[in-house]
Amino acid sequence: MSLPQAFTAANRSRVASLYRRSLKLSLDWVVDHGHWRRYAMLIREDFEANKNVTDPRRLALILEEVEAKLKEYRHPDPYIPPTAPNGTKWERNMPPLYGEQGPVKH
């Protein structure tokens, strides 16, 4: 089995995906952006600390650890913006349904 190369486009894409997922996951736990910014900076610091890893084995290990952390810290009831699908305001003010003969009368 071949080990992943350290600086490939696939690895850059995977690291960027892990970074975005980490930020989104932290927003599930801290909804207030003022407090969340501190956590975002800590996440950025963790990713920056491993920026210069060139050993493919160590890189694979680090990526596996991040994936495991994301699974461990997954929120049981994630935050959903109100107007997003399944949010509290989703489809709240739907336009009336029209049948073949005009508006439906109840």
Automatic annotation (TrEMBL):
One of its GO terms (cellular component) is mitochondrial inner membrane. The keyword Transcription regulation does not apply. One of its GO terms (biological process) is mitochondrial electron transport, NADH to ubiquinone. It is a peripheral membrane protein. Residues 75-106 are annotated as: Disordered. CDD domains: Complex1_LYR_NDUFB9_LYRM3 (cd20263). Keywords: Acetylation, Electron transport, Membrane, Mitochondrion, Mitochondrion inner membrane, Phosphoprotein, Respiratory chain, Transport. Residues 14-71 form the Complex 1 LYR protein domain. It is found in: Mitochondrion inner membrane. Pfam families: Complex1_LYR. The keyword Transferase does not apply. Its main location: mitochondrion. Mammalian complex I is composed of 45 different subunits. Belongs to the complex I LYR family. Accessory subunit of the mitochondrial membrane respiratory chain NADH dehydrogenase (Complex I), that is believed to be not involved in catalysis. Complex I functions in the transfer of electrons from NADH to the respiratory chain. The immediate electron acceptor for the enzyme is believed to be ubiquinone. This is NADH dehydrogenase [ubiquinone] 1 beta subcomplex subunit 9. It comes from Saitoella complicata (strain BCRC 22490 / CBS 7301 / JCM 7358 / NBRC 10748 / NRRL Y-17804). The lineage of its organism: Eukaryota, Fungi, Dikarya, Ascomycota, Taphrinomycotina.
